[in-house]
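Lab meeting tomorrow. Look over both lines:
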Amino acid sequence: MTSNFKSGFVTIIGRSNVGKSTLMNTMVGTKLAAVTDKPQTTRNIIHGVLNSAQGQAVFVDTPGIFKEKRGPMSGKLTERAKEATKNVDLIIYIVDPANSIGAEERYALSLIRNLTVPKLLVLNKSDLPEEEKQFLDDYKALAPDFTAMFELSALRNRHVQPLVEKVFELLPEGEPLYTDNQITNIGRDFWLAEIIREKIFKALRKEVPYSTHVEIMDVEEKPELFVIKAVIYTNDSRYKKMIIGAGGRAIKEIGIAARKELETALNKKVYLELEVEKDARWQERV
């Protein structure tokens, strides 16, 4: 370890669907958090660890700020995002220039306004056509309140490296927070469940995905494949029918999509068994 080793927690915050999870996945170099186009896909505080010659940055992915009530979890998730701004070394505030500054943006800004740690403004989705980034100048006007500003595309991994370099420049000197071989605070079963839940969010519409929660019941690794058994919980019997679909079509689509990604990530065949159950109290376990 060098004498000037940098380390610290870097919270990524912003409204829903601005690309927080995508940015963390890109900076860390592996997919840790589920990514969809639906608000508040992220439910938990997920750490992504980036080790470099300069030090160790622990990126903290947070649930999106979403003021419209979308199921019983919305208030809890916003509170988690608020808590994640405490006792950190750096803030990355990420925005989407295709959306105007509204109530969610103002609330997110209020959470970080009085923080004394360095704050970086990230204008994401630079890959969008210019005509779609109609609020870009409004966000650029926020720059005086931040230590530095960056325009980048987290999805395309364009111009992300200057942001990473600035993060290490601003982090304090300190000891590693994670061991060299650990890149996240989440376990294997949580990660498996997140992959499945991501496919539910992509396959189902409206309020149905928000009624769901995934738990891994068993994982068996055989020489030639993984056997994974999981339960999808929903808080309403009518949603259970929709998740299964006519003739089991919807659950089959979810299973195929999840299995393909898991096989790529695990580099081995996967047998995925999914069940759907009603449990009106699953929110208490999340």
